[in-house]
Automatic annotation (TrEMBL):
Pfam (any one): DEAD
Cellular localisation: Membrane
Domain named DEAD/DEAH-box helicase: residues: 62-195
GO molecular function: ATP binding; L-amino acid transmembrane transporter activity; nucleic acid binding
Species assigned in the record: Aspergillus arachidicola
Protein name: Amino acid transporter
Keyword annotations from UniProtKB, A to Z: Membrane, Transmembrane, Transmembrane helix
Length: 698
């Protein structure tokens, strides 16, 4: 319905007071904008004047006001006179919101034919192809205004799809939701440092106050570097009746000094000290400690199941699998580390899922990771029970008692909330597993020598006709011994120099290849086809008890690390915007201890209550771990790291390698599921399934 003439004149008069472009007046009259001068003065006027604006408050029609301000600021000269550079970037938390802003901008810019607006689609390749199309078809020009999510904007910039030399404005819309969705301050700082130049205006809009507290607390945006040419202003539409514009103090070199009258919940000195101590606490991990943490996660009693895999596969195939799968694991971990460097805001594997699939991917990958970590803790709890029964050789004590003791030890070892604090236990873990393997090799070697090594029944090729299920279970034992990538994002998030991660993965990878190959080949050569799993059971009753006792630190330290990773993920999400997340306050420690207690009890209950827990663990490993370590990293390379076409000269070899790794991961997924399901059916058929909370052997 057309507006009455007097209302249109009133709107135009209000807009003219800000000296807006004539083209915008016509568009605004159709949107009923301009009636209330207070909103113009609060938001549009500071932006139009070139100030860096911090706009807080869920005021009406905020996106329309932002678009008006942006269209007023950018150059609207003839296309032939305009540089082929983007003039304004609008960063939105989701694709849906970005598309909404795109619709508003296109509608308002309809009277400004020289202004090109573009919204990045959901996929990185689609974004590249569309921008390339625009560059080729519109006189070599990129869009004047580009809208997208942080990940897409970051990709367009870092891959050179967008040139930002002439960038006039950088706008963060719904900053609070951007932070809530996993794009933490380091990612936003990366965007700022890359695209914001001395002439670039920065506008940040948020609905809630907690975002401001978070930015000021962590001092990550470092706005001081953008406030040299003009003063900063803040708009707080939630104060009073929507009127409340006040200038902020000039930022000091070491951070912001917000006006406490405008933002009453600014930090006090005590909170600032807590934050500084917390940040220091969680950035102490170097590449050597990272290697130790990966050893805790990767090298456990699973190494002693590899000789039985050699018995199924034969010596030649066993060695090839150990070396080949080890190299694949190193490569996929390299991809994960590169993703972390390219996207510093990725704190856990779930955040990587968010980059690939948005909010759904974040939640799905987070659930998969937590479930797998809880199951692994439960598995170590059961392994501890088996170890206690074997060491004590007691049939008079209920197995549940041993499992409770194991759960308590796992809980106590999970108390450290920092991986750097946990790393010192890694040295004990490593010495423990090497000693257990060494004792097993020496003992089986002595036994083999006494009976004559020439009589040992080992073979270079598979003996008999092993079934597909048996062969694949053997391969799976080797595959899952190399799956250390699922926690790499979490560990790297604590590194003070993340780029050093390559030293860690090569050190660990080579160490694993040597240990697994030597352990599998020598013990298989000493024992032959009768080798048991774990192999220390083949060392004789007394020696196996000693080896189990020495291996106890491995069992419990490796199990505790899963609880800590899951706890850090959950605790960080719950208290993302609070100093409680640093676990250096009374509330922080209480909530942390409560959380790891809940996780440990949950893992113990699942392990004891599910009759076929071992096979269920195999299923979840086939579903989740194969993805985390094998078929998902190639997908990350293709969508997050690849630059240029996959078939280009510089990408063709890596494309083929990643295709092979992806197919290998899918084979592990399908074969592992099939073998595990077959094993469950066989166990139920033979009655080899223990009852929940049984006192018998587990």
């Amino acid at each position: 319905m057309p507006r009455p003439p007097y209302e249109q004149k009133k709107s135009e008069a209000a807009a003219l007071e800000l000296s807006l472009k004539p083209e915008l007046l016509q568009a605004m009259s159709l949107w009923n904008l301009g009636d209330d001068l207070s909103y113009y003065h609060q938001l549009v006027h500071p932006i139009v004047q070139g100030h860096h604006v911090l706009a807080q408050g869920p005021f009406p029609l905020k996106r329309m006001y932002l678009v008006v301000s942006i269209l007023q600021r950018i150059k609207t000269a003839a296309p032939s006179d305009t540089p082929s550079r983007c003039q304004a970037l609008i960063v939105s938390p989701t694709f849906e919101l970005a598309w909404t802003v795109n619709g508003i901008a296109r509608t308002m810019a309809s009277a400004m034919p020289s202004v090109k607006v573009y919204c990045c689609p959901r996929g990185f390749r689609d974004a590249h192809d569309r921008i390339a199309e625009l560059q080729g078809s519109e006189m070599g020009r990129v869009p004047d205004i580009v809208i997208g999510t942080p990940g897409l904007i970051w990709q367009c910039i870092t891959r050179g799809w967008l040139q930002t030399d002439a960038l006039e404005m950088l706008v963060f819309e719904e900053m609070d939701e951007i932070l809530d969705r996993g794009y933490d301050e380091s990612v936003l700082l990366g965007i700022l440092q890359t695209v914001a130049h001395g002439h670039t205006q920065v506008v940040v809009q948020s609905d809630s106050l907690h975002m401001w507290r978070r930015i000021w607390k962590l001092n990550r945006l470092q706005t001081a570097q953008f406030t040299m040419s003009c003063p900063s202003e803040t708009v707080d539409a939630s104060v009073g009746n929507g009127a409340g514009v006040g200038k902020m103090d000039t930022p000091k070199p070491n951070g912001w000094s917000p006006d406490s009258k405008m933002l009453p919940d600014a930090l006090d000195d005590g909170e600032q000290q807590i934050i500084e101590a917390g940040e220091a606490k969680y950035h102490r991990l170097g590449w050597k400690r990272l290697t130790i943490m990966l050893i805790i996660e990767a090298i456990g009693l699973g190494a002693l199941s590899i000789p039985s895999a050699f018995a199924s596969l034969g010596m030649v195939a066993g060695v090839i699998c150990c070396v080949g799968i080890g190299l694949i694991a190193i490569y996929t971990s390299w991809i994960i580390g590169k993703v972390k460097l390219a996207f510093p805001g990725v704190r856990h594997y779930g955040d990587a899922g968010g980059l690939l699939m948005g909010r759904v991917g974040n939640e799905l990958f987070t659930f998969m990771l937590i479930l797998q970590l809880v199951f692994l803790t439960g598995s170590n709890c059961l392994t501890g029970t088996i170890a206690w029964r074997h060491i004590t050789d007691s049939n008079n004590v209920c197995s549940v008692v041993f499992s409770v003791v194991s759960a308590i030890i796992l809980l106590l070892l999970s108390i450290p909330s920092s991986f750097a604090d946990m790393a010192w236990l890694g040295y004990i873990d490593f010495v423990s597993i090497v000693a257990a393997i060494g004792i097993t090799i020496i003992s089986t070697g002595i036994q083999g020598t006494q009976s004559g090594l020439s009589k040992v029944d080992w073979s270079a090729l598979p003996q008999g006709d092993p079934s597909f299920s048996d062969a694949f279970i053997a391969i799976s034992n080797i595959v899952f011994a190399y799956t250390f990538a699922s926690c790499l994002f979490s560990f790297m998030d604590e590194m003070h120099t993340p780029k050093d991660f390559t030293k860690s993965i090569w050190t660990l990878g080579i160490l694993q290849i040597v240990i697994y190959t030597v352990t599998g080949a020598t013990i298989y050569a000493f024992v032959g086809q009768e080798v048991e799993s774990p192999a220390l059971l083949s060392a004789g009753s007394l020696v196996s008890k000693i080896a189990f006792g020495i291996a106890l630190p491995v069992i419990f330290i490796s199990g505790a690390i899963g609880t800590i990773v899951a706890g850090r993920l959950i605790h960080g999400r719950i208290y993302e915007n609070s100093v409680t997340r640093y676990v250096n306050t009374t509330k922080g420690w209480i909530t942390w201890l409560a959380l790891i207690t809940i996780l440990t009890i949950l893992a113990w209950v699942i392990a004891e209550a599910v009759p076929f827990f071992d096979d269920l663990l195999s299923i979840t490993s086939a579903l989740f771990t194969s993805g985390f370590s094998f078929y998902l990293p190639p997908v990350m390379w293709f969508f997050l790291l690849r630059k240029g076409e996959w078939y280009s000269r510089e990408n063709l070899l890596l494309s083929l390698v990643n295709l092979f790794v992806f197919i290998f991961g899918l084979v592990v997924l399908v074969g592992g599921l099939y073998s595990s399901i077959q094993d469950i059916r066989n166990n139920y058929r033979t009655g080899n399934v223990h009852s929940p909370f049984t006192c018998g052997a587990v």
